Amino acid sequence: MSNQDLDQPDFDQIDFFRATALYQDPYPYYEYLRAHGPVWREPHRGVVMVTGFEEVMSVYNNAEVFSSCNTVAGPWTKFPVPLEGDDISAIIEEHRDTLPFSDQLPSFDPPKHTEQRGLLMRLITPKRLKENEEFMWRLADRQIDEFIARGTCEFIRDYANPFTLLVIADLLGVPESEHDAFRQELQEDKRAHEPDAGERRGPVSHKPLEFLYDRFTAYIEECRRSPRADVMTGLATATFTDGSMPPVRDVALIAANLFSAGGETTARLLGSAMQLIGERPDLQELLRAEPTASRISSRRHCGSKARSRASSDCRGSPRRSGPSTSRRART
Ligand code: HEM
Fold first, then answer.
1. How far apart are the CA of 257 and the centre of ligand 1, in A?
2. Is residue 269 in contact with ligand 1, taking CB distance under 6 Å?
3. In a structure prediction context, what are the per-residue pLDDT tens digits for the chain, which is 331 residues long?
4. Is the C-beta atom of 312 inside 6 A of ligand 1?
5. Does any ligand 1 atom lie closer than 6 A to the CB of residue 262?
6. Which ligand 1 atom is at minimum distance from the Cα of 117?
7. Could you say which of 53, 56, 141, 192 has the lowest number of CB atoms within 10 Å?
8. Cα separations in angstroms, 150 against 145, 147, 154, 158, 174
9. What separation in Å is there between the alpha carbon of 106 and the centre of ligand 1?
10. Is-contact 7 1, C-beta < 8 A?
11. Which residues contact 39 (CB under 8 A, 6 or more apart)?
12. 105 lines ligand 1 (CB under 6 A)
């Protein structure tokens, strides 16, 4: 189905993974999905769409049966061999390193996932989040200062992207003196406006993850050599639960994953929030009358994360093929 046909959509014809116009307003399609019951294999790609809350949670929480190996690329994940048999665990383990984003935390399964997640959770403590929130308030003003005199801005490029990027940098303890370098390297939009951007933005020249791995590898090696009383040293010296020290690259990967997992999602959330505020005068009035309401509303957004996660996992596809007692790949 083409995007133009979406005025009167025939959902049977829609390939969800290709219907870009649908993503502007996917809710009627979600109703169509739900009408097929809580678990339904869609016909275009054979992806199991899980829309029931209980069903989503039982897939999500059952790492014995379902794998996250294809979680990032979903139906575009291609195994080099056919997925045959009732239990495909051995095939997954043999080939998972060939899959896209296989070195990123969301693609891991236990026990590796549990170990690496443990490292991450050592960082995200209530104290760190409080400090990070204080940075956010300072940064919000600083970010607005960049365009307030102009009287106009392109919200995602001028505010949401750099704001999100620098909040994550602060969370990880990247020194403020390095923040500009991070913006230069990681903000593609910014680079697109530079004169020679066309030459440098190709897949070879623009490698944000490589930049992050290299930068964090250097930070972590330095902090392990000369520990200081700072967040980066905490990241560099965090150990697995058995007390062993993770390889430097593992820690650099986790740091890089926070940027890739948190960046676009949050920038889009801010964009949607701004659109809603623009469309709803009652929200504008509320925010003007009670400036602290913005704090409350951002906390409510955090609370909706669990629901977002659940619904985005609806694109399930088999880790082990076969009956429910065998392992399947989550999409
Ligand atoms: C609106 C904002 C966000 C949304 C909608 C969102 C959504 C998600 C979803 C759906 C997953 C699960 C992926 C899967 O299991 O297949 C996930 C995982 C993850 N997210 Fe977010 N996310 C957001 C913001 C962030 C931020 C700000 C950070 C960090 C700074 C972050 C870090 C992570 C990490 C590290 C994982 C992997 C967790 C794991 O595998 O244990 N996310 N996110």
1. 9
2. yes
3. 444 455 567 999 999 999 998 988 899 999 999 999 999 999 999 999 999 999 999 999 999 999 999 998 899 998 999 999 999 999 999 999 999 989 889 999 999 999 999 888 877 889 889 999 999 999 999 999 999 999 999 999 999 999 999 999 999 999 889 999 999 988 865 444 444 444 444 433 456 788 999 999 999 999 999 998 888 898 899 998 888 999 999 899 888 888 888 998 999 999 999 999 999 999 999 999 987 655 545 444 433 333 333 333 323 334 433 333 335 555 4
4. yes
5. yes
6. 41
7. 141
8. 10, 5, 11, 12, 29
9. 8
10. no
11. 48, 49, 50, 51, 52, 55
12. yes
Length of the chain, in residues:
331
Domains, the chain, ranges and CATH?
Answer: 3-119+313-329 (no CATH), 125-279 (1.10.630.10)
Amino acid present at 135: F
Of all protein residues, the one whose alpha carbon is nearest to atom 20 of ligand 1 is 261
